[in-house]
């Protein structure tokens, strides 16, 4: 569990990140979850874009993604979702102390 101070720090880091994937009308599937998990392992912090034709709201999706990927939900900004999970192999983001 991350603190609000750590979440604010991660939001600042994610500000300039491009959205690496889109979630559309097909919703979430196993291939997408695997891709997101691999991206989290490599980058630790990812931003996703939820398309208008998606049947779910970004707030619903971030909860489902965080649970499925064992990641921390950082932010929902409009149609963008930001997730964080520390890398098991090479952690690069150092969070502020709680």
Give a brief rundown of this model.
The protein has helices at 4-14, 30-43, 58-69, and strands spanning 21-23, 45-50, 72-77, 80-84. It has 98 residues and is α+β, with helices and mostly antiparallel strands.
How are the SSEs placed, and which strands pair?
Blueprint: H1 4-14, E1 21-23, H2 30-43, E2 45-50, H3 58-69, E3 72-77, E4 80-84
Parallel strand pairs: 1-2
Antiparallel strand pairs: 2-4, 3-4
User: What is the count of distinct domains?
Assistant: 1
The CATH topology: Translation Initiation Factor IF3
Distance between the termini: 10 Å
| Approximate helicity band | 25-40%
Strand fraction: 15-25%
Q: Globular, elongated, flat, extended or rod-shaped: what is the shape?
A: globular
Low-confidence stretches: none
- CATH class categorisation: Alpha Beta
As a whole number of angstroms, the C-alpha radius of gyration is 13 Å
Class computed from helices, strands and strand pairing: alpha+beta
Q: How many H/I helices?
A: 3
Biggest sheet details? 4 strands, mixed
The CATH H-level superfamily is: YhbY-like
Structure summary, number of beta strands: 4
Strand order of the largest sheet: 1-2-4-3
């Amino acid at each position: 569990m991350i603190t609000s101070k750590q979440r604010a720090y991660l939001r600042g880091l994610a500000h300039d990140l491009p959205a690496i994937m889109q979630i559309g009308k097909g919703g979430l599937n196993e291939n997408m979850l695997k891709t997101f998990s691999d991206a989290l392992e490599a980058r630790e912090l990812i931003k996703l874009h939820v398309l208008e034709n998606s049947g779910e709201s970004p707030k619903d999706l971030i909860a489902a993604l965080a649970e499925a990927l064992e990641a921390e939900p950082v932010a929902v900004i409009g149609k963008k979702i930001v997730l964080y999970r520390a890398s098991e192999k090479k952690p690069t983001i150092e969070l502020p102390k709680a």
